[in-house]
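Assemble and predict.
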Amino acid sequence: MYRRLASSLLGRRVRHPRFTPVCLRQDSGGCDRWEEEKKEDGVKWTQLEHRGPYFAPLYEPLPDDVHFYYDGKPLKLSLATEEIATFYAKMLDHEYTTKEIFQNNFFNDWRKEMTLMEQKIITDLDKCDFSEIHKYFVDKSEARKALSKEEKQKLKEEADKIQEEYGYCILDGHREKIGNFKTEPPGLFRGRGDHPKMGMLKKRIMPEDVIINCSKNSKIPKPPEGHKWKEVRFDNTVTWLASWTENIQNTLKYIMLNPSSKLKGEKDWHKYEVARRLKDVVQKIRAQYRADWKSKEMKNRQRAVALYFIDKLALRAGNEKEEGETADTVGCCSLRVEHIKLHRELDGQEHVVEFDFLGKDSIRYYNKVSVEKPVFKNLKMFMKNKDPADDLFDQLSTCILNKHLQKLMDGLTAKVFRTYNASITLQEQLKALTNPDDNVAGKLLSYNRANRAVAILCNHQRSIPKTFEKSMQNLQAKIDAKKQQVEEAKQELKNAEDEFKDTKDDKAKANVEKKKKLLKRLEEQLAKLNVQATDKEENKQIALGTSKLNYLDPRISIAWCKKFGVPIEKIYNKTQREKFAWAIDMADEDFEF
DNA sequence: ATGAACACTTAGTACCACACTT
DNA sequence: AAGTGTGGTACTAAGTGTTCAT
């Protein structure tokens, strides 16, 4: 019943594309963008119906023959204590369980959940032996891997059923996929980088913690048997379906729609339209911040230098963070004196600023940049009489900066520069790198290089894959083998040509053609492998996905595909095509960012 | 004016299914 | 049939920026 309703909605949608390629520019006004009537300001939907979150499975106690040992002796733990012990036991071969902060945080939180008796006994983590529990879970995961095809199929069907039931909602008559419909299971918190809270206990989310958001007249989701929701509200000015407060940072978590949804798609489109508007005023803004480098007001100078960094280097804004609550990371406005070094001259360049700091996710930003002289002089001044740990821009905050930007352009904030510079860089690089005569593989290499230029600009890194060295060697071996084949084919061709010279007969001529074809094919294969190797090497430490998904206006890529006859599937996989459905619908080959 | 709360986007990693070898 | 490499995805942390409360 539910299914039939849903599929009929889907069917209808196919005949009425959700994203109509009209009226991208504000000045073309007056047309209806979407099928639905326009909503009041701030209203996100008129109908929202869903099943509520899918809760993490309850804890299953360990079998009786799996023991926890304290001080060498087996100790039967209470259910709650045992559950938390399993969280730690599962992580045993991770490096972070060796860190003191992790251990202390874990042990503290663990003890809080123990019975009085357990608290009395278990006083020293070093005396805890989780190895049997650890082994139990290793074996269990092995066993799951070893399951037969049929058994795996059955598990998958069960997962699909859950997805089908809980993974979708109805929003304004459309069945939309939900992004994260499951509550996060309990476990030990893992922050990124040097996180002061690593190892703390992340508690189980109960229905009593969850706020449901839906429309009044919809079927209100039922909490699990014997439970109640914390609250049911009907707030159509927000897009989330459910929320709860997590206990580590005391912040809210939300259940929201999948990026393929219309709601998210429109928002994404809007984001790129704002960035495109920046294109029209960016020269003016640049002229202005250059002028402000000489402002009488220190505040303005700091603002202007910071903005220069954000624009030129695509730095993040850098909000203030509560000290001691998170890893020590910074962005532009929160840079400290210790994060930059000034070199009047370095490697033949003048006025070089050497950046070295940890940014979002504790990813290191290291860069040596030659800056314009007034910037250099200003920086010197900002650093004067300060300790290394002092703020570089002590008179500036993201709030001040964004207020200033808002005056320069409606909707302009610091992050728009990142979007703008990423997208414009892709467009320029594609223009510069694409050779229309290349085959598809060659064009894709160009695309990847353009994408890579953006990823480098935005400092999107990844750890070098564990298998990198090995797979590179394998690829090299393939290349060598292919080279060998090419040489052989060359020789064979030469032989065939010699024979033809001698005999001049048709059979020999046909043989020459055959050998030529073979050689050509082999050479193409070799070229392809070489391209692969280059791409792989250049890419080993760079993550392309983040910029592709969040910073590059998809219409640039789609236009490029159309212009150069590259199938869109080569650039975007299925999920990405769903996310960028709006762009695929509207962009033609003439699209300019 | 300020800071906390809130809502939303952006981010890297672990893992797994699957294709491809061996 | 097992090993292996890889793309895709799930997961959830960590940012940004606005709004709310005082």
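Residues 180, 182, 184, 189-192, 195, 246, 249, 253, 316-319, 321, 326-327, 329, 331, 359-362, 398-399, 402, 413-415, 465, 467, 470-471, 474, 573-575 of chain A lie near DNA strand C (CB under 10 Å from a C1').
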